[in-house]
Design brief:
Shape: globular
CATH architecture of one domain: 5 Propeller
Radius of gyration: 29 Å
Low-confidence stretches: 1-60, 62-107
Number of strands: 21
Mean pLDDT: 78
CATH superfamily of one domain: Glycosyl hydrolase domain, family 43
Length: 389
């Protein structure tokens, strides 16, 4: 048989052969192994924050730490090799990632937010205090120049830390209150702290410019301001305010959270998170008024005076997860004067007595005022807010 006849016969045989059932020319890639899945910890919202009863119904200061821990054998989260197009997925045993909601944790991964530290500022100075996580003692105090892009008022300084480790500050005077931002607070010597002036707190119909003595950050990261009212010496016109605008962009609009003019608390100079049953609380907190330590419910303005201390204005509580022993701690700052530096002390959370000074700050050579004319700021461990709105 010649080549042409043989080729024709083969073509006829192929055409008569039945096709394989279910075959297709197009395939859909459905390889699920490349999908990265993160495990979400379910937190019971009923146990993550303080109770919302009035301040006189709840006792602050118990230092009993949470006994719930997270199993350290949890495997690492999935990672993607940037040099290839494939994704490696790790399987996480869900039983090892369950965290009881009564355990507070640090958040965010920022070293200043996740370690114990404190800050205060006076005039063109910024002080960083490193705290030892093993026992709450002071490791070092670092003093740096504060350099702002516009002149700052020399007056009472409010200070609070945001979750990114940056600081929001206020400077009060009879002419009004400036708000400024320190995006990268320095923790080493000879490193000027660069500050950006965000503006002046706007007047909302009050008879005088608004005078802010203290700043505060809650568990949701919202920033509060303590309006001192008519003057810095009485409660007339005192109000707790909260920023509602994009304050880092200069929008300093606010809302009134609590009218403190007729409240049972004194003229508050600085605000602090509270410690309730060993956990951080933002609505039931601590406050200082000229050495008087107060328990205060920020949502009602009710409070109880706890002790007379050797501090003056500055106060801040650090949560248990920042320390090796899981015990929260409370610190206060004395004012000093033009010739004596501010002193940092720790307050016992059982009887509210304060310690001997842990460290004495620098004498700043001020023309007037106090070397500790400032609130005290630091990180806030993860918690659930109980402040409405």
């Amino acid at each position: 048989m010649n080549y042409a006849a043989r080729a024709a016969l083969l073509s006829l045989l192929v055409a008569c052969t039945p096709s394989e059932p279910g075959s297709t020319d197009t395939a859909v890639d459905s390889d699920a192994s490349t999908a990265t899945t993160l495990t979400t910890v379910d937190t019971d919202p009923t146990t993550g924050g303080s109770e919302t009863t009035s301040a006189t119904d709840t006792t602050l200061g118990t230092s009993d730490p949470s006994t719930t821990t997270t199993d350290a054998t949890t495997e690492a989260l999935p990672t993607t090799d940037a040099t290839t197009t494939s994704t490696t997925t790790s399987t996480t045993d869900a039983t090892t990632t369950t965290t009881d909601a009564t355990t507070t944790e640090t958040t965010g991964g920022n070293p200043l937010w996740d370690s114990p530290n404190l800050w205060y500022s006076v005039e063109n100075h910024l002080m960083y205090i490193e705290i030892d996580p093993s026992d709450g003692s002071v490791v070092a105090l670092v003093h740096n120049e504060l350099v702002a892009d516009a002149p700052l008022i020399h007056g009472q300084n409010g200070l609070t830390m945001l979750e990114d480790g940056s600081l929001i500050g206020s400077r009060e005077s009879a002419e009004g209150t400036q708000i400024f931002h320190i995006a990268a607070p320095p923790t080493t010597e000879d490193t000027p702290a660069q500050a950006t002036l965000l503006g002046t707190v706007p007047n909302d119909g009050q008879a005088q410019p608004i005078r802010i003595e203290a700043l505060y950050t809650d568990c949701d990261g919202r920033v509060y301001l303590m309006d001192t009212g008519e003057d810095v010496g009485n409660t007339e016109g005192n109000r707790l305010l909260r920023f509602t605008g994009a304050y880092l962009d200069g929008d300093l609009t606010f809302e009134v959270i609590t009218d403190l003019g007729n409240a049972s608390v004194a003229d508050i100079d600085d605000m602090s998170p509270g410690i309730v049953e060993g956990e951080v609380s933002d609505s039931l907190g601590f406050a200082m008024d000229s050495s008087n330590l107060w328990q205060i419910d920020y949502t009602t303005g009710t409070g109880t005076q706890l002790a007379q201390t050797d501090g003056t204005w500055g106060i801040h509580a650090l949560g248990g997860p920042l320390f090796d022993d899981q015990q929260p701690r409370l610190y206060i700052l004395s004012s000093g004067d033009v010739q004596t530096g501010a002193e940092l002390m720790q307050v016992d959370l059982d009887d509210f007595t304060d310690s001997q000074p842990l460290i004495v700050g620098p004498v700043l050579g001020l023309d007037n005022g106090y070397n500790g004319w400032s609130g005290l700021a630091g990180p806030l461990t993860e918690c659930m807010t109980t402040i409405p709105g």
